[in-house]
Amino acid sequence: MFSHNYTSKIVPRFALSMTKIHNFSAGPSILAGSAFEKSIEDIKNFANTGLSILEISHRSKEFESIMDQANAIVRELMSVPENYDVLFLGGGASTQFFQIPHNFLRTSAAYTKTGVWAAGAIKEAKLYGEVNVIASSEADNYNYVPKDYSIPADADYFHCTSNNTIYGTQMKQFPSSPVPLICDMSSDIFSRPVDTSKFSLIYAGAQKNMGPAGVTLVIVDKAMYDRRASRPIPSMLDYKLHGEKGSMYNTPPVFPILVSLYNLQWVKENGGVAGMEARNNAKAELLYNTIDNNPLFSGTCAVEDRSHMNACFVLNDPNPEMEQKFAAACKEAGISGIKGHRSVGGYRASMYNALPLESVQALVNVMNTFA
Ligand code: PMP
Questions:
Q1: What is d(CA 355, CA 93) in angstroms, rounded to the nearest whole number?
Q2: For site-directed labelling of 314, which of 37, 52, 112, 305 has its Cα 20 to 30 A away?
């Protein structure tokens, strides 16, 4: 029945390496091992069709079932209210930077500028109308999250970024907003419980806590469809149309949706978002304690705003010799992906959901031995 000459054996993830790789990559980043194993089977023979998931119609009943399950698990994990659409779109979070104002910016919108990604969202919104930057931490290289601001009641919406991936800062609380609250949760979605009903629109590129790159999750209150701007909306930018078509207006990113489903099943099996929060708290506590108590290292951002997803730190007395020695010690221990973003320098350890505590322990051991 099955025509391709694939072997049925799954290649172990770390087969090529003698050392286990501890994957601290900022994104695309670590996913649950079970998501790989299930997806590999579906590449070979999807749902007993004898066809690969990569070569089957997205209109097949087998893929429709995947789409339904993906939709349902997002609703369950995020407690999405009935009157919201859950959409799986293409274009990355960066497309949301302009799709949101295209749909909803009538006159002016309020934004907080908390990092390069927030700045990107602001830049695109300016193409559509007035953008009121009500708070910014740019002057301090985005090393904290501003909290002292008020959201104008006449704004069309308020946009914020829950986790600033590059700088390692995270909103611990969300403001109560007099206008629709819109949030870029690309780098901490599914990492902790949030009250979805407080948000009018949540979006996230998948490639951190959800799945592989190529799909963007949008959770949108259908009441927003009555607040659309009067400008024409091309079909591909129309949330309402995507909602009516069940994310199948065009060919959806089939494979990233499948892998996301399997990764989210792992989240569910491991206690859902509350389980992830406990797991992520333990990892963050271990690493930040080490950063604070180890004489060689310091954190780079305000302690109260420290992200539980991306921890940024520097060597106190950086010099090429020390940096090389630390890099070599990390490599030796199988630590991968901790180089900081070029705009911050130093190190960034990303600890997304699927990263085990054991990997943080491995990094901490290297830091302590190094000291
Ligand atoms: N927002 C945040 C918070 C991000 O971290 C990123 C990139 N990782 C983006 C937006 C842009 O996402 P994409 O590459 O999917 O367009």
A1: 22
A2: 112
C-alpha to C-alpha distance for 201 and 183, rounded to whole angstroms: 6
Domain coverage including residue 276: 22-28+272-370
Kindly report the protein residue whose alpha carbon is nearest to atom 8 of ligand 1. 27
- Strand partners for 350: 310
String of DSSP letters for 50-116: SS-GGGS-TTSHHHHHHHHHHHHHHHHHTT--TTEEEEEESSHHHHHHHHHHHHH-SSEEEEEE-SH
Mutate to test the pocket of ligand 1, among 25, 29, 94 (most ligand atoms within 8 A of CB): 94
**What total number of domains does the chain contain?**
2
Ligand 1 residue neighbourhood (C-beta within 6 Å): 27, 92-94, 117, 161, 165, 184, 186-187, 205
Regarding whether 223 and 359 lie in a shared domain, the answer is: no
Which of the listed residues 220, 242, 269 is the one where a domain comes to its end?
269
3-class secondary structure, 201: strand
CATH of the domain at 308: 3.90.1150.10
Ligand 1 center to 305 CA (angstroms): 19
Other CB atoms within a 10 A radius of the CB of residue 235 amount to 10
**15 has a pLDDT exceeding 60:** no
Q: Give me ligand 1 centre to Cα 258, in Å.
A: 20
Cα distances from 49 to residues 4, 32, 124, in angstroms, run 13, 25, 44
How does pLDDT run across 274-332, given as a tens digit for each residue? Answer: 999 999 999 999 999 999 999 999 999 999 999 999 999 999 998 999 999 999 999 99
**Domain of residue 195, CATH code:** 3.40.640.10
**DSSP assigned state of 306:** B
